Amino acid sequence: MPALSRSIEDNTLDGTISLLGGQKTLGRPVTDDYQAHDLIVAGLPVRAALQLISSLDLLPTDPSWPRPLGASRTTVARWKNAPAASRLSRTHSARTWVLAATLIRAARVLGSQRDAERWLMAHIPALDHRRPVDLLATPMGVKLLADHLLRLKEGVYT
Q: Are 59 and 65 in contact (CB under 8 A)?
């Protein structure tokens, strides 16, 4: 992995795990990207998505919420009433993980989670005037966001 790409990735795993409720909520330790992959494939516990949602201040006020999770408001309401052992689908797990990881990366670059949430909802000229939260829907959009955050971190004009 190139040095610049690695610098923005450092400790993102730990932050993402923490934002999802840590080992207690995830039900097992996650110490590397392979274990994270396996957890996502198996389905994150519903409690992890609810933990992420409860940590958000601004995103849930956006009219498109909870689209970044690939879910509807009805689905999120159903999660809140799900049995404790319930798991998200692979798709919802992946989208939940990506939102948490992107939020951690943005918070580290921008200074706070609140600033990261504002950034996620803003129309960014360097992203073709798109909102980062809308780009989370595809792998290419996630790549565009990671590249943009890396440029911001490295002080490259965007």
A: yes
- Which pLDDT belongs to residue 64? 83
Q: Per-residue pLDDT for 11 more than 80? A: no
Burial (CB < 10 A; 0-12, 13-18, 19+), residue 32, is exposed
- Residue 58, Cβ neighbours under 10 Å: how many? 15
pLDDT of the residue at 9: 46
End-to-end CA distance of the chain: give it in Å, rounded: 22
Query: What is the reported pTM?
Result: 0.89
- DSSP-assigned states of every residue in the chain: --HHHHHHHTTHHHHHHHHTTHHHHHSS---SHHHHHHHHHH--BHHHHHHHHHH-SSGGGSTTTTGGGT--HHHHHHHHTS-TT-B--HHHHHHHHHHHHHHHHHHHHHSSHHHHHHHHHSPBGGGTTB-HHHHTTSHHHHHHHHHHHHHHHHT---
* Opening angle at CA 125, ends 122 and 129, nearest 5: 65
